[in-house]
Write a structure and sequence with these properties.
The protein is of the alpha/beta class. The protein is built from 13 helices and 14 strands. Helix 2 crosses helix 4.
Length: 380
C-alpha cells in the first residue's frame, strides 16, 4: 500500500470514526436517500429489529440484501456500525454466518457492542456474527480465510478505497467458486480528476474516489469475475454549491451491481432456464437484475455465462437449466454493456438521490422524486 493510500485511509478513519456521529453528519447527505431497491419482507422485518444506535451510525448509500441467503457465509466489506451485517445475520439464519470487516476502531467497537443484543433478538442459541478490524484491500492480513464465502457485500465503501483493484482481487480470493459479490457504490460519469483526490472532504463523501462506471466492468473481468449485472441505480444530485464547484462536469450515480466467481469464462452456448419459485419472498418471480426477471414455471433463454451462474451458484437449487439450440434468441441482449450504465438505468427509473446542503436538517429535500420519497418512507 502506497504512502498516499495510507494517508487517505488515516483521513477516512478520522472522518468516519471521530467526526461523524450519525448519518445526518455527512455534509452531502449521501446516506439519507438510498437507491430504491425494494426490501423483501424478511429484510424489512429484520431491519426493524436492529438496535437504534447501530442504525444511527449507518453511512451506506444503497441496499445490499441479495436473495437466497439461508445458511450462507457472508462477508461485509467495510461493515461500519454493523447494520447490514445484523440484517444479513437474521437472513442467513442460525446455520449461516456473517463476518464484518472495517478499518475504523470506533465503528468496530460499536458493532461488537450489540452482538449479544441481536443474538437474543433473533432467538439464536449462539451468535452467528463477528466483526474484524482490518483493511478490505488486505483481507488475508486481517485473518479472513480465502475460498470460504458464498456472498460478499459492500455498502458505499469501495468509493472510499484508493486501490480498487486490490479490493476486488481480495474479494475474488475470499469467495468460493460460484460465489457472488453484491454491492452498492457511487460511480462517476467520467474518470475523476486527480486534483479532486487531494480534498479530504470529497474523499470522505465518496466523490473523489468514485470509480468511473466503465472501469468497473473492465477491472472485475480482468480479475476473473463474470460480467457484472446492474441491479438498480439512482442519480446523485449535488445541491451544495461548494461541492458543485469542485466536482465540475462530473456526474454521480448510485448503483448496485452483482457478479460471480466462475470456474471459467462464460460461453456462447445458450440455455433454457426455468425458475421454480422457491426463493423465500420471491415465490412468483425473481428479479435478478435490471434486465432479467424470472417468473415461476416460465422458461426463458439466457446466454452461456448467466446459465453457468444459475447452475453453480447458490441459485442452482431454484432453477432448471437445459441446453438450447443456438438459434434461440437471448432475452434483451443482456450482456451488452449499455445495460450496465447506472446513469442510463437511473434515467429509465426516474429515481434520484438528493445530496443536499445541511441547512435542511429537519427532513428530506423538497424536490426529491416521488419514487425516492416512497423509498424513504418504506424503510423508516
Amino acid at each position: 500500500m502506497s504512502q498516499k493510500d495510507t494517508s487517505v485511509q488515516d483521513q477516512l478513519k478520522t472522518y468516519y470514526g471521530k467526526r461523524l456521529k450519525r448519518s445526518e453528519d455527512l455534509q452531502t447527505d449521501v446516506a439519507c436517500y438510498k437507491t430504491c431497491t425494494p426490501l423483501s419482507k424478511s429484510a424489512a422485518d429484520a431491519m426493524r429489529l436492529i438496535h437504534p444506535e447501530v442504525t444511527q451510525r449507518y453511512f451506506g448509500c444503497g441496499l445490499v440484501v441479495p436473495e437466497s441467503l439461508e445458511r450462507c457465509h457472508v462477508l461485509d466489506l467495510g461493515s461500519g456500525s454493523g447494520r447490514d451485517c445484523y440484517i444479513l445475520s437474521k437472513l442467513v439464519g442460525p446455520n449461516g454466518h456473517v463476518t464484518g470487516v472495517d478499518m475504523t476502531d470506533e465503528l468496530i467497537q460499536l458493532s461488537r457492542k450489540y452482538i449479544s443484543y441481536h443474538q437474543e433478538k433473533f432467538g439464536y442459541k449462539e451468535t452467528n456474527t463477528e466483526f474484524i478490524q482490518g483493511y478490505i484491500e488486505k483481507l488475508g492480513e486481517a485473518g479472513i480465510q480465502y475460498n470460504k464465502f458464498d456472498v460478499l457485500v459492500s455498502n458505499c465503501v469501495i468509493c472510499l478505497c484508493p486501490d480498487k483493484k486490490a479490493v476486488f482481487a481480495e474479494a475474488y480470493r475470499a469467495l468460493k467458486e460460484g460465489g457472488e459479490m453484491y454491492f452498492s457504490d457511487m460511480y462517476a460519469s467520467e474518470p475523476v480528476d486527480e486534483k479532486l483526490k487531494e480534498d479530504s472532504v470529497l474523499w470522505g463523501e465518496g466523490l473523489a474516489g468514485a470509480l468511473y462506471w466503465k472501469d468497473l466492468i473492465s477491472l472485475v473481468k480482468e480479475l476473473g469475475f463474470s460480467t457484472p449485472y446492474l441491479v438498480s441505480a439512482s442519480h446523485i444530485e449535488i445541491q451544495k454549491a461548494e461541492l458543485l464547484r469542485k466536482t465540475g462536469d462530473v456526474k454521480y450515480a448510485s448503483g448496485t451491481y452483482r457478479f460471480f466467481k466462475l470456474p471459467f469464462c462464460g460461453t456462447d452456448e445458450r440455455a433454457l432456464v426455468t425458475y421454480k419459485g422457491t426463493v423465500t419472498d420471491h415465490q412468483e418471480k425473481l428479479t435478478f437484475d435490471s434486465v432479467h426477471t424470472f417468473e415461476k414455471d416460465k422458461t426463458v433463454a439466457v446466454d452461456g455465462e448467466l446459465a453457468l451462474v444459475l447452475k453453480i451458484s447458490r441459485f442452482a437449487p431454484h432453477f432448471i437449466v437445459q441446453p438450447a439450440e443456438c438459434k434461440v434468441p437471448v432475452k434483451d441482449g443482456a450482456q451488452q454493456y449499455c445495460h450496465l450504465n447506472p446513469f442510463q438505468l437511473a434515467d429509465k427509473l426516474g429515481s434520484s438521490i438528493q445530496k443536499c446542503s445541511k441547512t435542511q436538517k429537519d427532513g428530506p429535500c423538497e424536490d426529491q422524486t416521488e419514487a425516492t420519497r416512497k423509498c424513504v418512507e418504506t424503510k423508516s
